[in-house]
Write a structure and sequence with these properties.
The complex is a heterodimer.
Chain A lengths: L1 H9 L2 H14 L1 H28 L2 H7 L9 E2 L4 E2 L2 H32 L2 H15 L3 H27 L14 H25 L3 H9 L4 H12 L1 H17 L2 H6 L17 H8 L6 H34 L4
Chain B lengths: L1 H18 L2 E7 L4 H15 L2 E7 L2 H10 L4 E4 L5 H11 L3 E16 L8 E2 L1 H9 L8 H6 L11 E5 L4 H13 L1 H6 L12 E3 L1 H11 L3 E6 H6 L6 E3 L5 E2 L3 H11 L23 E9 L5 H15 L1 H9 L7 H11 L4
Parallel strand pairs in B: 1-2, 1-3, 5-9, 6-7, 6-8
Antiparallel strand pairs in B: 3-11, 4-8, 4-11, 9-10
Classes of the chains: A mainly alpha, B alpha/beta.
Chain lengths: 324, 341
């Protein structure tokens, strides 16, 4: 309401007060303050969370400094704590998951919104949204009892065809970085499909019609016009999925093998930040140990923050080129 | 008039104290949770007005919470360290007492292809395997303890707990006693820096991995192994005898250790003397402040301790597959209860 505020600004104080009352009566001012409070509370909670994590990790930050991020020893008995294996495990499992989930999720979303008959699309979407509501411990169990035995049967084939790469060498016990990546992929695909489909369906129909009027085929209209138009939303869905996979705890800890060492091979076990916190926090004795675990929480927060920031920069830099 | 009001007020207050529910909060170890919840429930029914609320959040959380004073008592699978005792003294202004309640043990569970016979493990073999020095199942150290068993030449896959736990503490405490190298290289703790192996979450996680991975070995809580009918090996004890873990052989370990037991009960009974003692055994403790200001709570806790040490309550524990306290330990604990002020 730019006009009403400029009038109020020019008015004498008493009139300004009256107009405030009027606006209050009209409900605008109430709605404004309520929604402002809602938005402010989110900033407040986030800020508070970071501060608490920061304060409660003081011992470990002072003791290890930045080397906390670069050392690989995690020895609670000797009081030596380094976060690198956990940071590596978190990033590599999430990257593996995205590598599988992005083509699958975006592909499915395009089919559901552009190509499938409405009834099929609605039915499938309902099922996909059900998948998003499955508790992660169930995914973990499926990982242990279905996915890992399956991986064991296909492992010789992978080794025969790709075994020359360092990623597929060394003994394979089932629980591994690879298994964690697969389970995470299954867990985050529903997010990508569900949100991307909504975004694609929100693309105005005249965009499609205009493209087709210019002689584009159905697929050209979809891939060259509709998908770029919805790109921001699709990327948003991918980052929501990434955030979930970075923070996933239960399912990962059940299949990753929980070994705080960095191995090049995806067949080898690993560890993630969220898993080690969940595993060790309850039985952590000694202040330094607790503070080191809380600092891991801070690291995970920073990691999510940085990745989301980079993603936004990426979107900005690509949209400026005017391709959408 | 004033007097009457005062009188009315004080009688109301007094009757309030007498009939009020005594609500006691505790937190700590998860291992004894099944027997504790049963005990506290039975005790509530018996006493009528004493409600003990126990949250099984883990031993570390139990020690932290009782030190901060957010609960009335704690519970732990490992005794508090000297530093922790000092911290408690500084924060709460009194000492804290340890009371053993029941016992548990760790067993060696394994999955060796082609071997159906129960295996024997020497302390050297267990330490060697978990240090990553014994790599094959047909290692001489294993073969020598298992005459007549054809052990395969395959690699040993070690599985340990990934979550911090009392079960791990007992196991590494045992290894620290039987192997100097373990003590200096790895040491004791609820989580340690494992030289080798995969981590499984909880007993079920370790058990699941052992079942799925051929030629693997790991340690599991005895009760979990009994209730899930898992096979496990015998371990050579301090008297050089191979012993199978059972509630009886675990109780025997406590009886064997009682002679050298300090008055504060902060003692590990791993590798205990006695020919029937199972060597990877441990107490689990209630941690109770030596000074309790609330008289009603104090009386309730003291009464509960007496009741818990009694035959019926210990039999309840045994029915849940916990090893019961030997008589000598019970007698020693009854003496210690009088230290609560």
């Amino acid at each position: 309401m730019p006009t009403s505020t400029s009038i109020a600004d020019r008015a004498r104080p008493i009139e300004r007060a009256r107009s405030f009352v009027a606006r209050l009566r009209g409900g605008d001012e109430v709605a404004h303050s309520l929604t402002f409070l809602a938005a402010a509370s989110i900033v407040f909670v986030t800020g508070w969370l970071v501060l608490e994590l920061f304060w409660n990790s003081a011992l470990s930050r002072h003791q290890f400094g930045w080397s906390f991020l670069t050392t690989q020893v995690w020895d609670p008995v000797a009081g030596q704590f380094g976060a690198l294996p956990f940071i590596y495990g978190t990033l590599i499992t999430s990257a593996l998951a995205l590598l599988q989930a992005i083509p699958l999720g975006v592909g499915a979303a395009i089919f559901l919104s552009e190509l499938a008959p409405a009834r099929v699309s609605d039915g499938l979407t309902f099922l996909i949204e059900l998948l998003a509501a499955v508790p992660s411990v169930i995914y973990g169990l499926l990982g242990v009892f279905v996915l890992i035995p399956f991986l064991k049967t296909v492992e010789p084939a992978i080794r025969a065809s790709l075994g020359f790469l360092p990623f597929f060498q060394g003994p394979f016990y089932g629980v591994s970085v690879l298994a964690a990546g697969f389970v995470l992929a299954v867990m985050i695909v529903p997010f990508i499909i569900s949100i991307s489909r909504e975004v694609l369906m929100a693309v105005p129909g005249d965009q499609r019609e205009a493209a087709m009027a210019l002689g584009a085929t159905k697929w050209e209209a979809t891939w060259d016009i509709v998908v770029p138009f919805a790109r921001k939303g699709i990327v948003g869905s991918i980052f929501l999925a990434l955030a979930r996979s970075l923070g996933e705890t239960m399912a990962v800890t059940m299949v990753i093998g929980n070994d705080p060492k960095i191995h090049a091979s995806l067949f080898a076990p690993g560890y993630s930040i969220a898993s080690v916190i969940a595993n060790e926090f309850t039985e952590a004795t000694g202040d330094l140990y607790v503070h080191a675990l809380i600092e891991l929480g801070l690291v995970l927060f920073a990691l999510t923050f940085i990745i989301n920031g980079l993603a936004r920069l990426l979107i900005l830099s690509t949209t400026r080129k005017g391709s959408s | 008039m004033k007097k009457i009001i005062y009188l009315l007020f004080s009688t109301a207050l007094l009757s309030g104290v007498i009939s009020a529910q005594v609500l006691i909060n505790g937190a700590g170890a998860t291992f004894p949770y099944p027997v504790y919840s049963k005990w506290f429930n039975q005790y509530h029914q018996k006493s009528g007005n004493i409600q003990i609320n126990y949250q099984s959040q883990g031993s570390g959380a139990g020690i932290r919470q009782v030190t901060e004073g957010t609960v009335d008592f704690g519970a732990s699978d490992g005794p508090m360290t000297d530093d922790q005792l000092k911290q408690f003294q500084a924060k709460r202004g009194s000492a804290i007492l340890h009371f053993p309640t029941v016992m548990g043990a760790d067993v060696m569970a394994y999955n060796v292809v082609g071997v159906s016979k129960e295996l024997n493990f020497t302390p050297e073999a267990i330490a060697g395997i978990f240090l990553g020095k014994i790599k094959k199942w047909n290692d001489p150290e294993l073969a020598k303890a298992n005459p007549g068993v054809k052990l395969p030449g395959s690699d040993i896959v070690v599985v340990h707990r990934s979550d911090g736990s009392g079960t791990t503490y007992v196991f590494v405490d045992y290894l620290s006693k039987v192997s100097k190298e373990w003590e200096t290289k790895v040491g004791r703790g609820t989580s340690v820096n494992w030289p080798v192996g995969l981590g499984g979450k909880g007993n079920e996680g370790v058990a699941g991995q052992i079942k799925q991975i051929p030629n693997s070995i790991g340690y599991i809580e005895l009760i979990y192994a009994i209730q899930n009918k898992m096979a496990y090996g015998n371990v050579r004890n301090a008297a050089a005898k191979f012993i199978k873990a059972s509630t009886a052989s675990v109780s025997a370990a406590a009886a064997g250790a009682v002679k050298e037991m300090p008055d504060d009960f902060r003692v590990s009974i791993t590798n205990a003397p006695g020919k029937d003692s199972y060597p990877i055994s441990s107490f689990t403790w209630l941690l109770i402040p030596a000074r309790i200001h609330d008289q009603a709570k104090k009386k309730a806790l003291v009464d509960f301790l007496h009741w818990m040490l009694d035959n019926d309550a210990q039999a309840t524990a045994e029915a849940l597959d916990y090893a019961r306290l030997p008589k000598a330990v019970v007698a020693k604990e009854i003496k210690a209860i009088s230290k609560i002020q």
